[in-house]
Amino acid sequence: MFEKLVEIRKNSYSPYTKFPVSAIVVTKDGREFIGTNVEDASTRAGACAERTAIFSAISSGVKKGEFKEIHVLASQDETPGTPCFVCRQMLSEMFPVEAKVYCYSNTGKVKEFTIKELCPYPFEEFTEEDVK
User: Fold this and answer.
1) Which of 22, 52, 66, 94 is the most buried (most CB within 10 A)?
2) pLDDT computed for residue 36 by the predictor
3) Measured between alpha carbons, how far is 2 from 22 in angstroms, rounded to an integer?
4) Mean of the pLDDT values across residues 9-24?
5) 0.85 exceeded by pTM
6) What SS3 class is residue 69?
7) pLDDT tens digit string along 54-65?
8) For every residue of 6-66, which 3-state class applies, written as one string?
């Protein structure tokens, strides 16, 4: 998967941060959807690689709960980078809590997390019973 991420990352449009990121979402039926970060001058209107891959999957008909895992190359050194908190929220909404998130370093080292580990307290609505 690392070699695919390296190739996909070449498509990143990141002239402002100079920090290219790539992601591959894998569905439960084995399909793969790719994404890169895409920036613009306002920075907030851009999109992260993780969400771009998820959006691609959803645009192709994948539904919430059909996601199996995601692989992310967000590093420029030996330390694997993790998804930002905006992406973590999206992951927590689309993936099961036990789904795997594989984060790669620029040299191919990989650190594995679950959605629950990366986003233990996702933004969600609480019922009256939850709040005391």
Assistant:
1) 22
2) 98
3) 10
4) 96
5) yes
6) strand
7) 999 999 999 999
8) HHHHCCCECCCCCCCCEEEEEECCCCEEEEECECCCCCCCCECHHHHHHHHHHHCCCCCCC
First to last CA, the chain: 45
Sign of the torsion angle spanned by Cα atoms 98, 47, 52, 36 = negative
Note whether 86 and 67 are within 8 A (CB): no
Q: Which residue has the tokens 């927590």?
A: 92
**DSSP symbols for 78-91:** SSPP---HHHHHHH
94 vs 89: CA distance, rounded Å: 9
Distance CA 38, CA 14 (A): 6
Residues marked active site are found at: 50
Beta bridge partners of 114: 100
Amino acid at 22: S
Distance from C-alpha of 50 to C-alpha of 24, rounded to nearest angstrom: 8
